[in-house]
């Protein structure tokens, strides 16, 4: 029996690195300390139905084909397209992302990550105002006030609270949960709000107003705050502001409740502006609650290779970035792409209906371990190994800390990195032939 | 009776548990549902497990009713997935990300059944 300690969980942006995995005869027999999300993903590698062989759509049905045939067809689609969309790359390694960017450049495609339907607006907010950052270790060791704004870690990042933010005991936070005040701002009383010390219920789409009101209170401009802002009484706003000013070290964790609602990137911008003012009195930082375990890694790799974090368009033979134009959703909504390569993501499930309709119309190549709604629309399907379980690689945690993911078991499936390398080679061969 | 509400979509641990297992009927069960305040369910005369038709300016979808007293009255929640995304606002407002939260939605009781994952994709997206 092989016991793997300090194993990294490849599910969410918390990237918990304390799992113990037991392997017998190349089968995972025990998973310790993982949450329900991580456990189901790791156990699922052998439990769930996998895509066993490469598939190609013939007369409306997906039929088995060889790996070489699938790679060749995928390469042909990309070479023959005027402008293809390469999307996803968030549940895979940085090494695969790097190759995917090379392929996008070679084929003059648009490449975007899952941030497009997630923390994309956060990136824009950071461009506007910057982001006072910290590592999760600093939050664990120092924070006496934690605010979860528009996020629900009980469901989306279940071990975040015990490892870093709510219950964790650190150097200056020896009392753990007892020494820490937890506030939640949300439009509904989520399971995270139910275990917080303070719950502030804001009306949908009013986060920006509430943030600005708290900022006014921090700057001693109480007189300009109306009696109610976004459904929140002035008294509560003043309490929140005092709480933030008096904290020794506070952290605002913010989620989809800020990026997917009205005001979008202006909400992240408002958090940053608020913290800028707050840092004149106290120490405060902000960390986005990233969903896919390596969506942060995509941003890092894309930044150092192209100068931009996502939504990069290579149509002009150089990197061009304008997320409202070159983002995956916008290119699909305008019908601006004539083929798509989707890997390590599921836009069939997670894009808005109008964008999915466009995906259904164009040739679609999918690289994924599992059958999902995107498979229903795909024309070529290439099965892949599960990175972080069957293949190793680097991933970045939500606080931009890189961690090396281990391989627990062997597999015959090829890694995303290998598949995209093979497509790239074929693309170059076809282009030379032409 | 129709109820005017605002729709919020997002992650639940149950939906997330089946993220890499979407052909499993449990994924369908955990996503094709709508969490509402018990008072709102009373207003509609709907019990937990009965079917609701949720309609927005962008489409309509049939889901199962669930109860969640954490939702204020007038706010409904559908877990992220093909069912919720059939009715979210695709407009990105020029910043790349569609509107997945705070969409005005009309809810009413229906006799129709929700469509499972494969039937749903075929009904909504096959030409």
UniProtKB/TrEMBL annotation, chain B:
Q: Give the protein's recorded name.
A: tRNA CCA-pyrophosphorylase
The cross-references to SUPFAM superfamilies, in alphabetical order and at most eight, read: ADC-like (SSF50692)
Q: Which InterPro entries match?
A: Asp_de-COase-like_dom_sf, Formylmethanofuran_DH_dsu, MoPterin_dinucl-bd_dom
Specify the domain of life of the species encoding this protein: Archaea
Q: Where is the Molybdopterin dinucleotide-binding domain?
A: 7-103
User: GO: which molecular function terms?
Assistant: molybdopterin cofactor binding; oxidoreductase activity
Origin organism is: Methanosalsum natronophilum
